[in-house]
Write a structure and sequence with these properties.
With 426 residues, the protein is an alpha/beta fold. 43% of the residues lie in helices and 15% in strands.
């Protein structure tokens, strides 16, 4: 029985969410290579291995299968091995993590006043380009996420100035009035205190995230472009390996990085029809944050290309409960570059409020940063979406989720003023 993939485009160019098409059947996956592309995350790659280890153990206990995580031989890129027995089948998976945390850390190294200048430049870029207006028409979560650091940083500055004013007033009571200006010396130390404790509010972290996306007007920064070229070689080698599936997973900002890399590789003919099944899983994407900017022509061209490609299966999973993502949003369509023969992505909801128990949902609901990583974690009331069955189980991504219809309420209306596309040579 062939697989049924839903959500393809009808003859009128509108996404058809009911008509299935046949896809070739494949045998069970025995060996898999997972290529994980993280988002804007300054933390060491070991964090992801330990997260996978602990959460796979929890999910296995809930769902009744076994997963064992171990280290792998020293290699250029950090990763780990997974041995699983799921649905009666033993599967070996090698996970390779394409880290770019050093680029993230470097982009976050800003002085106190550079941070405020960066904030003003970011506001100007999004406002002047019309991207902010487009984002406002989509999900409220990322909009709140955009204004949150601005409000916090302004309040921190006002607080520091208020402290300085109070000290200056006290000095002026016992000294010449002009000496009250000495109170300003506490402004910088106060702001540094807030910066040291940013892990509690994540205001500067969120600002740097938005600023990184628009530092080149939406184009990939040169450092990241160079790193992506190296990453593409890793994926190309995986496509030549003796495995049944190469599964690329892009989380958050890593989603559009993965889209561009796979577009490059497919255009260059690096995917052989007789090679491993190629799958793309994007999780918690923030693509409109970049694709609506004027300099994002490369990304828009890649969205246009990959959403019509027959070389892979692309499933996008988000959740309305995740305030840091553009939930249930078709990135190609809202960016105004969906092709008439659009096939992908198949857009599904992780439905946190349903797949997490009321107790668990209550505990996590207001932990926005943690919820943004829930896609990589265990669910105590899992539905079809199970990260560990997908990455370590005996079915390809398309076999496991291809039968699903797109979740209700997917946003497809174009909200972008910027729709130009300019392909680079690959």
């Amino acid at each position: 029985m062939p697989l049924q993939i839903r959500g393809l485009v009808g003859i009128d160019g509108v996404m058809d969410e009911s008509q299935p098409v046949d896809a070739p059947e494949a045998g069970p996956v025995r060996r898999r290579r997972v290529i994980y592309v993280p988002g804007y995350d300054p933390f060491h790659a070991r964090k992801y291995r330990e997260l996978y280890r602990s959460e796979s153990r929890a999910q296995a206990a809930i769902s009744g299968y076994s997963v064992t995580v171990s280290g792998r031989e020293k290699a250029e890129y950090f990763g780990w091995q997974v041995a699983a027995e799921i649905e009666g089948t033993e599967v070996e998976t090698e996970v390779v993590l394409l880290a770019w945390s050093d680029i993230v850390k470097e982009s976050m190294e800003r002085g106190l006043w550079q941070t405020y200048l960066q904030m003003l430049r970011t506001i100007w870029t999004y406002s002047n380009s019309g991207a902010l207006r487009g984002v406002l028409r989509l999900n409220k979560g990322p909009v709140i996420g955009a204004f949150y650091p601005v409000v916090f940083l302004v309040l921190q500055l006002l607080f520091a100035l208020a402290v300085a004013s109070g000290i200056g007033w006290a000095i002026a009571q016992v000294a010449p009035l002009w000496m009250g200006l000495a109170g300003l010396v506490v402004v910088a130390p106060t702001l540094r205190w807030f910066a040291r404790h940013d892990n509690l509010v994540l205001a500067r972290y969120l600002l740097h995230t938005f600023a990184f996306s628009c530092v080149s007007g939406g184009a990939y920064p040169q450092a990241l472009e160079a790193r992506m070229a190296a990453f593409e070689r890793v994926i190309a080698e995986a496509l030549e390996a003796d495995v049944d599936e190469v599964l690329v997973v892009g989380h958050s900002l890593g989603a559009h990085v993965a889209i561009s890399m796979l577009s490059d590789l497919i255009r260059a003919g690096k995917h052989r029809p007789d090679g491993p099944v190629l799958s793309l899983l994007t999780l918690g994407h923030v693509i409109p944050m970049v694709s609506l900017l004027p300099g994002a022509a490369r990304l828009r061209a890649d969205l246009n290309f990959l959403s019509a490609s027959e070389a892979l299966c692309w499933v996008d999973v988000t959740a309305p409960g995740d305030g840091c993502t553009f939930a249930l949003t078709d990135p190609a369509s809202v960016s105004g570059v969906a092709p008439e023969n659009q096939r992908w992505p198949l857009i599904l909801s992780a439905a946190f409020s349903q797949t997490l128990s009321p107790e668990r949902w209550k505990a996590l609901r207001w932990r926005f940063y943690r919820l943004h990583f829930q896609y990589l974690c265990a669910f105590d009331r899992p539905n079809d979406y199970d990260y560990f069955r997908i990455t370590a189980g005996p079915k390809t991504l398309c076999q496991r989720l291809g039968h699903r219809k797109p979740s209700p309420g997917v946003k497809r209306q174009c909200v972008s003023k910027q729709t130009s596309m300019e392909l680079r040579d690959v």
